[in-house]
Amino acid sequence: MKMKKFKKLSFSDKSITISGYVGVILFVLAIIIPLIYIVVASFMDPNTLNNQGITFDFSKWSIEGYTRVFKDDMLLRGFLNSVFYSTAYAVISVGATLLAAYPLSRPDFVGKKIITTLYIITMFFGGGLMPTYLLVDNLKLLNTVWAILLPGAINVWNIILARTYFQSLPKELREASAIDGASDITHFFKIMIPVCKPIIAVLLLYQFVAQWNSYFDAMIYLDDTKLQPLQLVIRSILIQNTPRPGMIADVQSAAAMAKMAQLLKYSTIVVSSLPLLVMYPFFQKYFDKGIMAGSVKG
């Protein structure tokens, strides 16, 4: 806001504006300060970090944590597994979501209100953990990648967002394609999908982040360590390197294990956050448009 316009505001408006700026600044600091702490701590020796706190003296920095992370075969395999799970899950989920949402957006689709109601009911009532586990077991999906990709791939909230976005598009698009002799399938893939890039980008980002941060399904369905995602690998490594009372008699060994656990903790947090930090700038131009258009009630 320009200073001249600000001076013309009333006292109450100035107070609200200043309060808004202060609130935004505090919110940004609450996000940035922990990030800076984690990044700096990942380059520091744990003993120095415990004794002096974080320091910007580069002579005390080290890349030992990152060296150990990238030399660890389990961490590298877990990282690649997480990239695969998140990418495949996002593609499968968004594909199924768009196929389910498009018919519900059509005014001539018979029974769309009943189907939408049935979808919404599943948002409030689930089958529960044990029935879902037994279903996955009966389908022979345990210890396979499909146990991670298929359960939960359909998200009702995303279907509603996509349906609302479809409804916001001009009806003339369908009329024009019908005049050209395009079928519903041709219209969907050649007209609607290219037009819906904003909502597709938003849904892809949603589902990628959701799967990237997920660990519970993998903990329940995967026993094979070669299939486990990064989150479970990090958990296992930290547990292995965390000294427990009565397990280690040597004080030096316990201190070394605690140092290694702290060293790996901050380094793996930074490494596991990199894909999301790299992705977001490419999706940002679609994000605001997609989420705003998809959230308007249709």
From TrEMBL:
Residue ranges of domain ABC transmembrane type-1 in the record: 79-270
Which residue ranges does UniProt annotate as crossing the membrane? 21-44, 83-102, 114-134, 146-166, 187-209, 263-283
The record's annotation in InterPro entries points to: MetI-like (IPR000515), MetI-like_sf (IPR035906)
Which intervals of the chain form a coiled coil?
Answer: none
One short Pfam family name for this protein?
Answer: BPD_transp_1
Q: What main location does UniProt list?
A: membrane
Q: What are the record keywords, sorted?
A: Cell membrane, Membrane, Transmembrane, Transmembrane helix, Transport
Note the topology in the membrane: Multi-pass membrane protein
Question: What are the subcellular locations of this protein?
Answer: Cell membrane
* Protein family per UniProt: Belongs to the binding-protein-dependent transport system permease family.
Q: What is this protein called?
A: Carbohydrate ABC transporter permease
User: Which organism encodes this protein?
Assistant: Clostridium beijerinckii (Clostridium MP)
